[in-house]
Amino acid sequence: MNAEKNYSPQERALARLGDFCSRLRLDMALEKRAQADLESALQAAGLEFEREKPLSKSDIPDFLVQVEGITVALELKTRAQRKAIFRQLERYAEHGIVDCLLLMTGTAMGLPTTINGKPAAVVSMGGGWL
């Protein structure tokens, strides 16, 4: 008998948003255009979110998305250095308002399953085109 894993509310919210984002077809040529397209998709799906809400003077995620009462910091990067992206996500994870982290990127990279104790995942921006 297979035991079903008990996922936390944060992991479920992250998986739900990650699945939604993985099906989107975003223009990866310009990051600002991709962010605008993502904003339109979130609105069309009826998801509650805030765009570029400052967590601190220097920490401003692209989106804070509410999924089942969980706040997901959603960062979209078409191209960027892996270490810089990871450091940015580490900073976001330090804020109490952030429950989990989702990175949408055109850069091939992975993430650990948690960053500073908060669930994290990465979604390829190319997935929606397959």
TrEMBL record:
Name this polypeptide is given: Uncharacterized protein
Highest taxon above the source species: Bacteria
